[in-house]
Amino acid sequence: MPDPAAPLPYLVFDFDSTFTQVEGLDELAEIALHGLPNQAEVVGQIRALTDRGMSGELNFQDSLAQRLAILGAHRRHLEPLVERLKGKVSESIRRNGDFFRQFADRIYVVSSGFREFIEPVVAEFGIVPSHVLANTFTFDADGRITGADQTNVLSRNGGKILQLKALDLPGPVYVLGDGYTDYQIREAGLANRFYAYTENVSRPSVVAQADEVLPTFDEFLYQLKLPMTLSYPKNRIKVLLLENPDARAAELFRAEGYQVEEVRGGLDEDELIERIEGVSILGIRSKTQVTERVLAAANRLISIGAFCIGTNQIALDEAMSRGIAVFNAPFSNTRSVVELTLGEIIVLARRIPEKNPKMHQGTWDKSASGAFEIRGKTLGIVGYGNIGSQLSVVSEALGLKVLYYDIAEKLQLGNAVKCKTLEELLKQSDIVTLHIDGRPDNKNFIGSKELAQMKPGALLLNNARGHVVDVPALAAALRSGHLGGAAVDVFPYEPKTNDEPFETELRGLPNVILTPHIGGSTAEAQRNIAEFVPERIMQYINTGNTQQSVNFPNIQLPLQQAHRLIHIHANVPGVLAKINNVLAAHHVNILGQYLKTNEQIGYVITDINKEYDQDVIQALREVEHTIKFRVLY
Ligand SMILES: NC(=O)c1ccc[n+]([C@@H]2O[C@H](COP(=O)([O-])OP(=O)(O)OC[C@H]3O[C@@H](n4cnc5c(N)ncnc54)[C@H](O)[C@@H]3O)[C@@H](O)[C@H]2O)c1
Ligand SMILES: O=C(O)CC[C@@H](O)C(=O)O
Fold it and tell me: 494 C-alpha to center of ligand 2: Å?
């Protein structure tokens, strides 16, 4: 709150493209020319003139006169225009409407636009007509708009300067606007600061002159420590996206108002440590290792999004103990992996990896040697989770007999038969496919002993994680002819970018399909993932909802009732009682409280009523064993 001894400076707002997202005259032209064949052309001309005037390329008076001359508008178009503009108030101004109503006596709208449409729009924000300084239209006897009242100073070049001089405000003045004429007020010495307002349009020539750039009005309120609707300006939330997730992910984060930085490939540990400072949301895929060292350097990290299924590349427990919630996309690419696996089974059974290159070299090798139908064969699925169980259903439809092995008790689908041991599965299967997760214990899960237990001529597929198979042992089993073929999509070491060469003992072996970790790389899967993960993260940030987090206690919260306090603490006895003691001591009324814990942390959400003083927040931050605390307004 501003100190009463030093009241809020006078805030001079531009209207077009600042208070509203659009230019009033452009909208008026669209309405007036609606249905006419030349509408698009004339609106385009008006927009071009607006832009040239705003960037300082054309003097204001000429830009206005030329626009009005081609407008063709009538008094009856003003009412629909006002309705349209009311729906196009800038988002951050709309959400901080209470601020405008509270400080309306310190706020002026000074615009080269027209009073006829500005006054009714800003009135909803408590701004009275005497604080609106704008042009006025002239009309002919039939109500057609003929121009701007030339006696109004705002119709002239340098009009805003003349207007500010006439206003002679008795205190510091801050100007917020997107146009050159707004900056000129400061240049003329009539304002103490000029804020380039870029929420709707960003003009390089204007930004270059600004004391500060405001991507949203929240940023202004935050800088001046004024009351605001959000707890933190979204434009300050930095997102770092690695490994090229679908473009939709960046688009969604940007639409939320976050700053997004993208790095096409992966980063190694040291590179990531250098980049992670100040980042609030980190987006990765399977390659980037988010180690304890990385997390120690991550001073602002709130959440990590794994744009994939696997999360073994993230130090999940360390993230949890630092209050960083991790989300993944647990089934967005499941179907893609199933389809690839099925295709590979058929292709390996027909020894296509050998026949295809020969054909390209001009060799016609027509023979049935080593080729078999998959109908009636036994498929052993190791890991009967989302992928394994879906593969089970689709494989049975193709006539395969399915065996499965999983360390967890799983629902048996269709006619699939559960094996009690891995050995039981390996000994009976013509084809073995791995769909276990990448937990560290699964390193070399399939080694020479397990390979020896497989049937002679059997096929092995690994579309799970590289380290679960001992690759030299697999290469030996293929070379010796014990195995009839293999398909491998994942490797213990995978190149960071497409420019890095790829090495493996499996290169050049007969009947082996090698793919560059593309099991989930389909347009459908990548798009699904790029929508699913940002959605989870934004829900977490905006509401505290941790549903489907892979390392946080999962809470699905009801709609926020008032202020929401989000408290993450070490799971030791008595923390909830301490939180509630603080609230009771400050006479804060609890509207709802939700707690969930796991072995390491407690996650408690408390909805409280509107009235509380800032000391409560400080006292809650100081509760012993607090890991992270934030307030949602
Ligand atoms: N190639 C790709 O592009 C690609 C795409 C998606 C997923 N994946 C990987 O596929 C794997 C499976 O994905 P999912 O979505 O089905 O995972 P999931 O978590 O649903 O299923 C994994 C299953 O493996 C079981 N399991 C774990 N360790 C085991 C062991 N030692 N023995 C027997 N069972 C064990 C678990 O109990 C679980 O049922 C993961 O490793 C994932 O990272 C790869
Ligand atoms: O796209 C990736 O990097 C990983 C795909 C896959 O391994 C997953 O875990 O979902």
Answer: 12
